[in-house]
Amino acid sequence: MLIKFKPIxxxxxxxxxxxxxELSKAKPHKLLTKKITSTGGRNNQGRITxxxxxxxxxxxxxxxxxxxxxxxxxxxxxxxxxDPNRSAFISLIKYDDGEHSYIISPKNIKVGxxxxxxxxxxxxxxxxxxxxxxxxxxxxxxxxxxPGAGAQLVRSAGTSAQIVSKEQPYVQIKLISxxxxxxxxxxxxxxxxxxxxxxxxxxxxxxxxxxxxxxRPKVRGVVMNPVDHPHGGxxxxxxxxxxxxxxxxxxxxxxxxxxxxxxNVFIIKRKKK
Length: 273
Prior knowledge:
The chain has about 270 residues and is mostly beta strands. Helix content is about 5%, strand content about 25%. A hairpin with a 2-residue loop joins strand 13 and strand 14 (about 170-175).
């Protein structure tokens, strides 16, 4: 659910945020947190390698169970939480044997519901099972690319993929980008969509809120000097005067950068342009 504010200040006039009233206000489960250090976009020599990073509110990393390797042990949703490290919400689950774990919250999952991972478990929101045992047309997320490696695809807020067809030894998956690709039938996936679908509609409203998230200001190349950027210089307002490039002369704005010929065989249809 989205929240709009009364415009009692200039920044609140345009602010639209996601409501978190359904989420727990408790501190994260201590045994499932790690220290995370901020690089500010610098490498081990102190040089900027990723621009526009720095500052931000200090965070703890929540260790998410992307493998769901506890087979046929039921778990209860204890609480749903906000995670500052990702766009989706996370859920703390407690297995019947007493162990706790964090998972990516599926959409509409409620506290007290049960989830389970296994070979032939029910096709129910939050359950995890191999692709070969999931019916065609089912919405899924947290998809593995290699059996047992842990989920890598479809993990961000509001996303889901769909099983198109099955043909040994692969399952055809349609991703949210429009790409259709083969994935090994033994790879696991979780039933349902990822939580927080309204994430795409938020408006931060002020520069400061962007700074809390660890982003520094972005300066366009066309307002720089020629020494600083290929688009720089010129009399008055000039819009580059050449094909869009990075400060290092590499083509940008639409240039394809994918360079993984090993997995081309798995892609049936490229993503939408």
